[in-house]
Amino acid sequence: MAFRWPLKAKTDHGAVLMHVDPRFTRTSAMCDLHVPIRAGTDILFLGAIINHVINSKRWNSDPFFREYVVNYTNAATLVTPDFRDTEDLDGVFSGLAADGTAYSNASWAYQRQPAPGPAPSGVGPFTDLLLQRVPGRPRTDSTLTDPLCVFQLVKKHYGRYTPEMVEKVCGCPKEKFLRVAETLLNNSGRDRTANIVYAVGWTQHTVGVQIIRTAGVLQALLGNIGRPGGGVLALRGHSTIQGSTDISTLYHSLPGYLNMPDARKAHDTLKDFILTEAAPLATSYWGNYPKFAVSYFKAQFGDAATADNDYGYDFHPKITGDHSHLPMMVDMMGGRIKGLFVMGQNPAVGGQNARFQRKALAKLEWMVVRDFFETETAAFWRNSPEIRSGELKTADIRTEVFFLPAAVVAEMEGSFTNTQRLLQQHEKAADPPDDARSDLWFTWHLGRRLKEIYRNSANDRDWALRNLLWNYDPDIAEVARFRIKDEPSAYKVLKEINGYTWEDRKPLPTFANLKEDGSTVCGAWIYTGVIPEEGVNRAASRKGDEWISPNWGFAWPANRHIMYNRASADPAGRPWSEKKKFVWWDQVAGKWVCPSGEGIDFMPTKAPGSSGRDNGIGFDWLGGDDPFIMRPDGKAWLFAPAGLADGPLPTHYEPYESPVANLLYKQQSNPVAKVWKIAGNPYHGVADPNYPIVVSTYRLTEHHCGGQSSRSVAWLAELMPEPFCEISPELAAEKGIRNAEYMTIMTARGQIQARALVTRRMTPFVVNGKTVHEIGLPWHWGWLGYASGDVVNELSALVADPNVTIHEGKVFTCNVRAGRKGGGA
Amino acid sequence: MNPETLAPEWAWYFVAIYFFVGGTAAGAYFIGAMAELFGGAKLHELSRDAFFVALPFLLPTPIFLIADLGRPERFWHLFFSPKEGIPYINLQSPLSVGSWALLLFGLLCLLSFLDNLVADGRLRFAPFARFYNRIPRKTYAALGSVTGVFIAGYTGVLLNVTARPLWAATAPLLGPLFVASGASTGAAAIALLMLWRKRAAGEVFRRLEFFDRLALVTELLLIAAALVLAGRYAVPLVTGFWGFMFWGGTIVAGILVPLGLAWKGRHTEGGGMTTIMLPAVLILFGGALLRIALIQAGQV
Amino acid sequence: MAKGMFVDTTICTGCKACQVACKEWNGLAPEPKHFGQVTGKPYPVAVNFTGNSYDNTGALSATDWRHVRFIEQFDEKRTAGRWLFSSDSCKHCNDAGCLNACPTGAIIRTDLGNVVVQQDVCIGCKYCVPSCPFGVIAFSEKSGTARKCTLCNDRIHNGLGTACAKACPTGSISFGDVTALKKRADARLAQLRGLGMTGANIYGYTEAGGLNVFYLFADKPSVYGQPERPVVPQQRLPVSSAATVLALVGVGVAALASFRERGDREAEEVHHEP
Ligand SMILES: Nc1nc2c(c(=O)[nH]1)N[C@H]1C(S)=C(S)[C@@H](COP(=O)(O)OP(=O)(O)OC[C@H]3O[C@@H](n4cnc5c(=O)[nH]c(N)nc54)[C@H](O)[C@@H]3O)O[C@H]1N2
Ligand SMILES: Nc1nc2c(c(=O)[nH]1)N[C@H]1C(S)=C(S)[C@@H](COP(=O)(O)OP(=O)(O)OC[C@H]3O[C@@H](n4cnc5c(=O)[nH]c(N)nc54)[C@H](O)[C@@H]3O)O[C@H]1N2
Ligand code: SF4
Ligand code: SF4
Ligand code: SF4
Ligand code: SF4
Ligand code: SF4
Ligand SMILES: [Mo]
User: Fold this and answer.
1) Residues whose CB is less than 8 angstroms from the CB of residue A178 and which lie 6 or more positions away in sequence, other chains included
2) What is the pLDDT of residues A108-125, one digit of tens each?
3) What's the whole-model pTM score?
4) Burial (CB count <10 Å: 0-12, 13-18, 19+), residue A434
């Protein structure tokens, strides 16, 4: 679906499409250039482009680049002299703990002016705290010559990331690399912008976050951020996966990207919480953190949330560690988790080291699965491979499994938030059949019943449940047309997310109206404005146009489709060029304007060139040339002084499992990657002779993820019936594997059989002179459904990125042989 | 001609056999009619036997034809449009025209058959007998011979105007080929009947044999020509199982051997096993295999 | 005003949405041939892996009215590489072999120019099957009739486009008035030629008397499994018929030569006195 737009750009506007992917895919087929690189080497590839760009004639001669970079990025900012780069320490940065498992980022900090005198207080109880702690402005060198300035550090860091190194490590021909670098460079500047799109080919790595950072650094250097046609775009997964990060289903964040109260941090009181989380960011728009946070807690506990009880902060759950999916399964295996709700997930198939995860499920006391097909997760106890192999016996599994029928999207009302941060409403078309119900119905009624049970409990621990604001009662008008009359009101939920005044329940048109005194409630400040007034839902608006379409749905924040769009004008506020004009400063009106109807992601009346107040916070501190209003210095970060667990600059590390040694540094792989050296999760060594082949897992258009939503549909099953393995004719010949016949793929975690799809779309890579083979496995299959077969994730391992704990499903090592698992053709 | 076309997957035991018996009936009737029209008194026995052969061979054809339909109960749609409620014919479709021709031919066969019975005095049917001499039997003999040849020929045309490589490539020869083959098998069928009725001797019979040989030789020439036209598309016909059936069954057993025997026994007088029975059976056999091989080879 | 479809294979991503949309709208079953019993499964599962690139459905059939082809063109060095996709269906020929061949009038052409098999008229003689130059129309054991793409007859007679075109995310399949579509096709062809795609060609303007569903190909039609020079088979009807008439004359002559004799007509008449 989404791909129609790149294609349109190509056919109608002559855009050049380039695809960097180990395999030649259906996407490659539509692109002008396909560049195969060995899985897991993107940082080197992108780093080499950075190196190529900043040393290129064009970049150094065209004033645009310097003007953008000096003013809008932190290139000029000076870093403390204690900082040591990977070039100095052979692959690690300064600050690595003695045991080598964690960094302290003290030595990555900016050099700063002395802190300003405290500002006049009395603004608000929490804001006042922040005003007392405004740091001095960062020191800069606008000539970019100081060896400690970010630009010089970047230049040094990527000095050895050369086309030759790319050829040697990524196994991609130098010429192809140079074509990519040149095309990007030549299509960036005043009149042109280039855009980088990625999805999980970049994220599912122990360096996932850093790969994307590299793209960010590159785009910032090319002046491609905050401008139409520019940016680094994540193509997100499930239809509202963006929404599920905004209105967070993630363990570590609250809706609107506030952090989760954490028992390990100085979060004892609301004040501590706000100080710890907001102080470092207070000179950005995050200076409003107190208003967001207080309004959030007010939205949880309503009347019970008062200034005296810190708005219920104490009763709000706190995390005690990394509770993301992989650690959760590890804890489950360790018997530390008793019950599990699985709503819209199929980890028995989609989970890394799926066998481990299924066995973990067997340690639960109870599990609730809501789905519209029986998933492998719901069925693990009766016919999983472990049961069939006798490894587990149904009789011994104590887990009580409740399988409940879910409604499909057309059977419920609500909104999707797509990858562009656009909220779009979908109506309920029909009632779900029989007992099937929406997740909203289930969750609300579950909450209602629990509240009923604990209504009279005197225990503090039940306070939150007792006082939980749960006012989403069915709306007669909404349910009138339907059989199911007790469906809660999705509108009421969205209204709470949008925020309203507690006094008279009036929706808030903008997050500028939020207060830190408990007079406003707001579920997620970033969505404020989707319901600007009672009864108006902008997510449901459907007036499109040929350009930005401000009246099609609602793009958070404040209907801004292109974030940091002040950067689409030069420091003086003039459009960079006629061709790329978007937001600019209107001298006469004395404000920023955007005729396309786009929301302006900047202080509406802050003139270009004007400077901020040194002792202010938020918009007061930021200057007229600080487009990146969510960063505490208003600049795009080439160098990240904070916020990352594995270093301020993206660095090439080999995947945790790799057939080759790191050719750039002594440090083989991400030193702080999350690993679980536990029973049932063995790893392969570096260049392990038993597992010399690189394997990558990915999707097919014909199926969806864990597969029940497609494998249970015979029409889709017949399109891609069985698990198959994409393998090059070269490797196939070496292993005696014949097309369409069965082959077996083995890792230390497990082995699976799949049909061989021998194709030249797979390329053997020549790495440092020797051939490295890579195979590809679509991972959609399981033992249920009309298209069934082995679970590819039997092969993968529990290993993850240190920042967000994303697994490394995109690259690990394996071995292959002809024939079925048990032997036989 | 496109190798990507689909085969109808007609069942040979219905369609090919239908082609065969239909062709044989037609051939037999044609001979009878010719004898009736141009032959003198001596040949009346021949025409009688011919008409006796024609009908029985024709009778099963509708069964074969209908049995292969996906919707047998709707066979009447061939003649009558269920939507417009009027008779239907599609002049562009050999199958459509052929069906009508079959109807007509069937009727004429029946008349000739009855005519025979009456003439032989086996059928005592007073009114019929009374008007007997006034029945313009030469006209329906003439008509029947034409429709007969049509029946034998259209099946070939039907194949020639499809997109299947072999059938299309052999255009326009399958029509004539099936006519010739029909003539030979028809003659062979008559010969067998005559043998049974102990009449397989004398001048009359020799004329029949002569005709039969003419047909066989023509058939051989047409097959040769068709193979040339077919070129590489003939491969499925001339190789493998169908090749075996074609060469061994049709060419050798069905054509060459009968001709050979005829040549050998050209002086011997009187009916005999090797000179009459065997060749006749072989000809019929070969005629059937020709249809089967062509239908099947055209569908692989 | 003839309706049709223009299939621009150069912007086909091979997503198969058209194939599924067709089945969904037309209520077509999954192809029975694709499913089979496997050990340890109580119900039949898909067993139709072909190993032929991403094409597992193989061809058009009585239940697959649309089919997406995948053509991999890579040299050993992977220097030149192409993966071509093309979505195929009935061409709704101006002079349709299937329609010409039908002995029952089951196949009709509607006022919008599309060729439709009336399921309640078809007798399942299968003669249309070998009469399609493109191997499209097929016989269904289930219904006992011939079946194929109808150009979404029900949709287009109610002001909707075809289901496949509607589902196509890239606009590779577009539905509309044939004349308008041809303009679009010509423009796109010119654009591609301009970009140096010399191999690009339009298939269906002249082939087999012109097709209401026509294609823009990047390579020779045969590469996409289409006949290079398709002809309407009934073109051979006059000659074949003539040849058969000649044959009639031929056997006539042979018969005369064999059976003709002069004299004693009298005897003949006498013979038949009752
Ligand atoms: N039809 C369909 N659509 C879907 C989904 C589905 O299952 N089916 N899933 C949805 C979801 S949840 C998501 S997250 C998205 C994911 O969308 P994608 O990111 O497109 O998903 P994948 O196919 O897993 O991975 C993309 C590509 O990454 C390549 N790759 C592997 N390793 C590397 C590497 O190291 N570097 C580079 N550059 N490329 C690499 C693989 O070869 C693969 O072609 O798709 C969404 N859309
Ligand atoms: N090896 C490897 N592993 C991977 C990946 C990879 O690329 N390689 N990709 C990873 C990625 S990006 C993702 S997102 C995960 C996805 O993995 P999963 O999320 O486990 O896979 P899905 O099949 O999307 O699970 C969604 C389930 O929710 C059901 N469902 C759909 N709509 C609803 C609804 O409204 N309510 C309820 N209750 N259920 C619903 C569907 O029927 C389906 O069974 O897999 C991850 N696993
Ligand atoms: S599957 Fe994904 S791309 Fe396709 S329509 Fe749905 S959301 Fe869009
Ligand atoms: S493509 Fe074949 S089936 Fe379709 S109309 Fe033409 S001849 Fe008939
Ligand atoms: S199968 Fe049906 S549609 Fe085809 S020719 Fe016979 S009657 Fe006509
Ligand atoms: S036009 Fe309709 S029937 Fe024909 S292929 Fe497309 S969807 Fe199927
Ligand atoms: S839907 Fe469109 S893009 Fe997808 S396969 Fe069909 S024609 Fe190609
Ligand atoms: Mo995902």
Assistant:
1) A52, A163
2) 999 999 999 888 888 999
3) 0.94
4) exposed
Residue recorded with tokens 């270009």: A608
Contact between B137 and B12 (Cβ < 8 Å): no
Rounded to the nearest whole angstrom, what is the distance from the C-alpha of residue A823 to the centroid of ligand 7?
39
The Cα-based distances of C80 to A269, A538, C53, C191 in angstroms read 64, 49, 18, 22
Residue A748 DSSP class: S
Which of B42, B96, B133 shows the shortest C-beta gap to C272?
B133
Cα(A158)–Cα(A180) distance, integer angstroms: 17
- Looking at the DSSP bridge assignments, the partners of residue A258 are A254
Find the mean pLDDT for residues A5-30: 96
| Residue, of B52 and A405, whose pLDDT is higher | A405
Per-residue pLDDT of B158-194, as tens digits, reads: 999 999 999 999 999 999 999 999 999 999 999 999 8
Which is the closest atom of ligand 4 to the Cα of C115?
5
Rounded to whole angstroms, the Cα distance separating C69 from C58 reads 8
| Nearest to A248, CA basis, from A317, A301, A311 | A317
Q: Which pLDDT does position B136 carry in this prediction? A: 63
ipTM of the prediction greater than 0.85, yes or no: yes
pLDDT per position as a tens digit, C211-267: 999 999 999 999 999 999 999 999 999 999 999 999 999 999 999 888 887 544 444
| Distance in angstroms (rounded) separating the CA atoms of residues A183 and C225 | 36
- Contact yes or no for A91/A665 (Cβ under 8 A): yes
Residue C108 alpha carbon to ligand 4 centre in Å: 11
Question: Model confidence over A644-659: pLDDT tens digits?
Answer: 999 999 999 999 999 9
Between residues C210 and C1, the one the model is more confident about: C210
Choose the weakest-confidence range: A324-338, A722-736, B57-71, B112-126: B112-126
Cα B257 to Cα C200: distance, rounded to the nearest angstrom: 57
A280: DSSP letter: G
The verdict on the CB of residue A337 being under 6 Å from ligand 2 is no
DSSP B253: I
Whole-number Å distance, alpha carbon C86 to ligand 2 midpoint, is 30
CB A388 within 8 A of CB A211: no
Residue with tokens 């060609």: C201
Residues 6+ apart with CB under 8 A from B209: B187, B191, B262
Extract the tokens encoding C137: 């129309």
Pairing of strands A774-778, C115-117: unpaired
Q: Which of C3, C7, C22 to mutate to test the pocket of ligand 6 (most atoms within 8 A of CB)?
A: C22
Q: Is C33 at the interface with chain B, CB within 8 A?
A: no
* DSSP 8-state secondary structure symbol assigned to residue A614: T
Sort residue A537 into left (φ over 0), alpha (ψ -120 to 50) or beta. Answer: beta
Residue that the structure tokens 């496995």 belong to: A777
**Would you say A535 and A527 are in contact if contact means Cβ atoms under 8 Å apart?**
no
Beta strand A422-426 pairing with A414-417: antiparallel
